[in-house]
Amino acid sequence: MPDPQAIGLAPASVSTGAGAIASGPRKRKHRYSILTRRDKVVLFLMVGIPTALTIIFIWLPTLASILLSFTNYQGIGGITAANIVGLKNYQFLATGYVLFWPAVAHNLMWLLFFVFIASPIGIFFAVLLDREIRGSRFYQNIFYFPVVLSLAVVGFIWELQYAPDGFIDSALGLTSQNNAIDWLGNPSLNIWAVLVAASWRHVGYIMVLYLAGLKSVDPTLREAAAIDGASEFQSFVRVIFPVMAPINIVIVVVTVIESLRAFDLAFIINQGTNGLELLSTLITNNSISEASLIGFGSSIAVVLLVISLVPIVLYLSRVMGSASE
Amino acid sequence: MTATSMAGGSSRRRIRRGRVVLHAFLITMSLIWIFPLAWCFFTAMRPLSDTILHGYFSWPTTLNFQNFIDGWTNANLGYYYLNTLIVAVPAVIITLILASLVAFALTRVRSRINLFLLMMFTAGNLLPPQVIIVPLYHFYLAIPIPKPLSSNGLLYDQYIGIILIHIVFQVGFCIFVLSNYMRTLPKELNEAALVDGASIFRTYRSVILPLCTPALAALGTLEFTFIYNDFFWALLLIKTGSKRPITSALNNLQGQFFTNYNILAAAALMVAIPTIIVYIALQRQFIRGLTLGSTKG
Question: Which ranges of chain B have pLDDT less than 50?
């Protein structure tokens, strides 16, 4: 983790970096003291341009979201002191806005469904396919192919299954006249229907990540466990799973972030309304589509930001910490 | 002797039985997995008149590709594919160039801010896009862009705006992957180039970059499908329907043909085809790209 001083230096970061190279022998010993002035300028530009773009188009809007969340700005004219409303948006979110807690609940359901059902299935497939069995590659391709599809396509493919005269109702013998189940229209059912569709894609993604991790596990570990008389299940739980710790963290982070980012499927099915409210769809529905409640929408964005920081920080501290060595 | 051989035989038999169960399970799961796509294809192959008469859950009387032809011409899909290419090709190329430059500089020069920069880029990539969309939308309406790059003088509703946000969002992931990759290259390469008097840019261009071809190929494949599949940015940052890339255009088609699921199914499949082709043709790159990001090196 960087120390606070390093964070303070952030905006001037690149020049500091180049400066450190310039003052070679006096500061730390530097291997590349032979860099010319021109080289330093080139290095500065190499890092500087992408850094500037990221700051301007990601971190500045993030900061703006935070600041706007304390206003009642509606996008017309400038922001004046009169626009500042303090924590009112958050107060209204928690107590007055009827869609907020359902959206939180849906995001949470999404997360739990991914964590306890979709990701474990992906891991299970990976463990099955990691052994030398005939056709392993073929099975991998089948489970993996939904991952390359756009969520817009995934959404449509599943609409064909869920529609009142689609596959599922027809297979169950239900027709529009005969109490068909409206999988996507029923506000207490549709979130589950969407979660199944989302998992169809998530499982393959997790499977591939986990397979890559399993390939890197020392095969002698498994042999040793087998010699000690461990069953395959025991050897996975006691030996393989623990040594996969770095990948397990990646899986957790990917799963959490995917659940927080969920947007496309809900939007394609009904714009994220009527049982499919998510934090992400509330933001766009309040601030960009019909309404223009920029301040209020920003407060939802800040809630999403704060929750997202948990997996992001976990990821950065674990994965980057070891990657930087 | 007999005891051990018998035990061996029965365990071998048990293993064989285990294999049969395993394959039966995997085949069942594969069928379940492939079914939604197969159903979509089945629907797309049937004329609307057939499904109106007999329902979607019925034995087909005719199967043909007419819906694909109609979908292609009525929905003008060729045009939207072109929109996607206009966005995806420059976005992928510029993302890879910028990311390789940063990764090179960060792995080459040891400095205390390197880790911080790497974190800033990676965190930016992990952030849900919805966190920044509201201010970004207004930035896009406010930042002036000169004429040749933008037909309305803004970033909003322009190819350049959508290319830019893809670059900004994807560059973090690519930097992370490429810097991990470059770290595995021998350090002596840099030093040898420097001793030979090569400038820093030449070292990048003629020594390091060629060695990164496998990683760049993997990332290029992955990024192309990421950007091709994007729905969110195009939906919110492009207003004009005719400028939308193909994936978000599919959403408009749903409004246009909402009574004709058969044509929609054909259109959805056609939208999916390029990514499926990329995956089949460049499978190794694709999976490599995906796993490069999670496992080191």
Answer: 1-6, 296-297
Contact between residue A250 and residue A241 where contact means Cβ atoms under 8 Å apart? no
Give me the DSSP letters along B214-265. Answer: HHHHHHHHHHHHHHHT--HHHHHH---GGGS-HHHHHHHHHHHTTT-HHHHH
- Substitution target in A9, A125, A149, A294 with the highest count of B β-carbons within 10 Å is A149
Residues of B in contact with A257 (CB under 8 A): 126, 128
Q: Which of B50, B114, B131 is best to mutate for the A interface (most A CBs within 10 A)? A: B131
Domain A91-323 - what CATH class?
mainly alpha
What's the CA angle centered on B134, arms B133 and B135, to 5 degrees? 100
Under 8 Å CB-to-CB from A286, ≥6 apart: which residues? A293, A296, A297, A300
Domains in chain B, CATH or no CATH each: 68-292 (1.10.3720.10)
Answer yes or no: do A301 and B132 touch at CB < 8 A.
yes
Q: Which residues of chain A are in CATH 1.10.3720.10 domains?
A: 91-323
Give the CA radius of gyration of chain B: 26
Cβ neighbours of A57 in B, within 8 Å: 132, 136, 139, 164-165, 168
- pLDDT tens by residue, A126-138: 999 988 788 888 9
Nearest-CA distance B138 → chain A (Å):
8
State whether residue B99 is helix, strand or coil.
helix
Enclosing H/E stretch for B20:
helix B2-45
Token couple for B227: 């950007």
Q: Does B102 contact chain A (CB < 8 Å)? A: yes
Residue recorded with tokens 């800033």:
B120
| Chain A residue at shortest CA distance from B289 | A209
Residues in Cβ contact with A181 at an 8 Å cutoff, skipping those fewer than 6 apart: A168, A169, A172, A174, A189
Give the minimum alpha-carbon distance from A160 to chain B in angstroms, rounded to a whole number.
7
Please write the tens of the pLDDT for every residue from A253-278.
Answer: 889 999 999 999 999 998 888 899 99
In a 3-state reduction of DSSP, which class is residue A175? strand
The reply to whether B252 touches chain A by the CB within 8 Å rule is no
pLDDT digit string, tens, across residues A54-89:
999 999 999 999 999 999 988 777 778 788 888 999
Q: Is B95 on the interface with A (CB under 8 A)?
A: no
3-state secondary structure of B286: helix
Residue A62 DSSP class: H
CA A160-A164-A170 angle, 5° bins: 80
How distant is the Cα of B83 from the closest Cα of chain A, in angstroms? 16
Instruction: Determine whether the interchain pair A161/B39 forms a contact, defined as Cβ–Cβ distance below 8 Å.
Output: yes
In chain B, which among 44-83 make CB contacts under 8 A with chain A?
55-57
Q: Helix, strand or coil for residue B213?
A: helix
pTM greater than the 0.80 cutoff: yes
CB-CB under 8 Å, B33 with A146: yes
Which spans in chain A are helix H?
Answer: 4-8, 13-22, 37-54, 60-68, 88-95, 100-113, 119-129, 136-148, 151-162, 167-171, 190-215, 219-227, 232-234, 241-243, 245-261, 264-270, 279-287, 294-315, 321-323
Positions in chain A whose pLDDT score sits under 70: 1-34, 176, 289-291, 320-325
